[in-house]
Write a structure and sequence with these properties.
By secondary structure, the chain is of the alpha/beta class. Helix content is 47%, strand content 18%. It has 16 helices and 14 strands. Strands 3-4-5-6-2-1-7 form a seven-stranded mixed β-sheet. The longest helix has 30 residues. Bound molecules: guanosine-5'-diphosphate. Guanosine-5'-diphosphate (GDP) binds next to α9.
Amino acid sequence: FYLCCMIIDNDTICAIASGSGKGALSIIRLSGNKAIDICNSFFHSKNLNEQKSHTLHFGTFKKNDSIIDEVVVSVFRQPNSFTGEDIIEVSCHGSSYIQQQILHSFVQAGARLAKAGEFTFRAYANGKMDLSQAESVADLIASDSKAAHQLAIHQMRGGFSDDLSQLRSELIQFASLMELELDFSEEDVEFADRKKMLDLLQHIQSVLEHLMNSFKVGNAIKNGVPVAIIGKPNVGKSTLLNALINEEKAIVSSQAGTTRDVIEDVVQIQGISFRFFDTAGLRNTMDEIESIGIQKAIEHAKKATILLFLLDATQVIETQIEELQKLANFPITNPLIVINKVDLLPKNSHTIKEAIYISAKNQQGVSELSSQLVNRLGMDSLNNGNTIVSNARHFEALQNALKYIKQSIDNLNNGLSSELNSLDIKQALFHLGEITGEITTDDLLDSIFSNFCIGK
Ligand code: GDP
């Protein structure tokens, strides 16, 4: 049902744009060619039809002669508005009764309730932003850490779109030259310089691979970086979590995870959300049960971006590492080795170079551990303003585009016909175009915009 409705129509749409729950103020938004007229029939102090774009007006909102609220109305005229249409935003007091009264008034006067994401959809359909920018609006609203916010802002301001449109237009140039060759196939001419073409394809291949590599970090930043703390009971896992929370003075949430025995704590470190998984309730139990607990931790470990081996400084380190490696039924490469309880060691006995020595109990070495966690992500590219892919749909499209770029490189190297090559390049262009929305299907638009909230 939703799908067939996501077309741009002449309706004026309305919705509460501010969040649910009681705030001091609330915003009700109208978009469409009747927006100003509709609001004007309830607004008293001046005629909104005579007001310029980007202006604010104070007055009363009246319904059937009774005053609903004192409000401030913003007027945005097309095409310089978020949706590209006339927009009215009414700031009223945060009462849900007032909000509903204003919304009802608008609907009675001919507006219709907006569907999820419909304002942003109109912005996209009216060419105010491309698809990846529209998606970033949802990411921006959902961003709850500095890093996630940075990714979304970069994308909303067109960072990703710029990178891609450059590649696409170069590729389109070659594609059209190849098409031309096909038209002249009798005469055996080559309009498209094969050497330049190969250079371009190889360049695109490396850009795509680079973008795809960034997805692991991008996805982790968006959803919180999963860190699995793996260690035998009593090595200090809970104490470490508490220490990290103390150090950062910012715990976002703490809740039981999918399995009863797994605790997830979200801690923000240097503006990045880290999701720590720790097994709980397995202390002082028999070995067999302990190992079940460790198996559960290992299930999480498989999906984690960072694996943290927590060891007890008073026991033989190498044996502990071996034990943990053995318990895991998958090869663990490059775990972050953290040795706890150094307060129990004599001074200068920190012998393992690549390990971080801490005393969780005394809050010692915890800030170094925090920095190491951030370093592991390789966030340099984010700080350099490079594009980081954080959207699974984009990743998939890049993957598909890369497949055809590689085929096309093979074709060229093997001297295959321009016909084949032109097909592969067209496919690559198709998948690149999917990201920014030059190429879309109703299904795709539906699945993107239906994930928005109403009013966005
Ligand atoms: P878990 O089973 O791995 O979660 O371990 P806990 O965090 O419950 O800690 C087990 C025991 O080790 C507790 O008695 C802690 O007080 C103690 N412990 C934790 N960290 C340290 C530390 O840095 N130094 C010392 N001396 N004891 C610690």
